[in-house]
Specification:
The protein is built from eight helices and nine strands. It is an alpha/beta fold. It has one domain: Aldolase class I (TIM Barrel, Alpha-Beta Barrel), CATH 3.20.20.70. The protein binds D-xylitol-5-phosphate and zinc ion.
């Protein structure tokens, strides 16, 4: 299972957090982008990340929690992320966004909120690389995992072999909640469980156990 470390709770000291992630075997840095449209928060304007690839070799996993993030694709693609994920609920034309991201040579993810069914995105599964199942309401780090989202991870896991996407989960993931989902997900996004600690690698090891 791949580990993507969310730095949302370390918003005010990104560099220090990333230096600590660099010392671990985490696979990705998860960048939560908010522009006060889809959520009422702001995080990681692209300027705050402009030289990120100079201080980390980790791959980037960008998560837009933004309404109609068309112009953001242009901006964040310059960071050369492996994935850009947008919310199915936040765009008017899902195919358009899949194409815009693919045109940049970046892998495409679709995120679904706790109350959104897999059915809403089923027709897009052949064309995407990742489904991000939100296990909290988007907006803040440090929320509790919502147990009633795990059935969707199982559902997607069972559909996966027919297509080419991976299943990821985001929100409230720790050494306990991981046990509810580890059979169904290929990647987990974990923030505060890792970044609230002084030893990031210890926490990552607990997730991987
Ligand atoms: C929630 C974000 C998550 C969050 C994860 O809106 O998309 O990436 O920061 O953080 P934890 O693990 O603290 O829930
Ligand atoms: Zn996220």
């Amino acid at each position: 299972m791949k580990i993507s470390v969310s730095i949302l709770k370390e918003k005010d000291n990104i560099k220090e957090a990333i230096e600590k992630i660099n010392l671990t075997d985490a696979d990705y840095i998860h960048i939560d982008v908010q522009d006060n449209t889809y959520t009422s928060n702001v995080s990681f304007p692209v300027d705050s990340l402009s030289n990120i690839n100079e201080y980390t070799n980790k791959k980037l996993d960008v998560h837009f929690m933004c309404l109609e993030p068309e112009s953001l694709i242009e901006e964040y693609s310059k960071l050369n992320p492996e994935y850009i994920t947008f919310h199915a609920e936040a765009v008017s034309n899902i195919y358009k966004y899949i194409q815009l991201i693919k045109n940049k040579g970046i892998k495409v993810g679709i995120a679904i909120n706790p109350e959104t069914d897999v059915n809403k995105i089923i027709e897009y599964l052949p064309y995407i690389d990742l489904v991000l199942v939100m296990s909290v309401t988007p907006g803040l780090g440090g929320q509790s995992f919502l147990d009633n989202t795990t059935y969707k991870m199982e559902e997607l896991h069972n559909l996966k072999d027919r297509y080419n996407f991976i299943v990821s989960a985001d929100g409230g993931i720790n050494d306990k909640t991981i046990n509810l989902i580890k059979d169904y997900v290929d990647m987990v996004v974990s923030g505060s469980f890792i970044t609230d600690s002084n030893n990031y690698q210890d926490k990552i090891d607990l997730l991987k156990e």
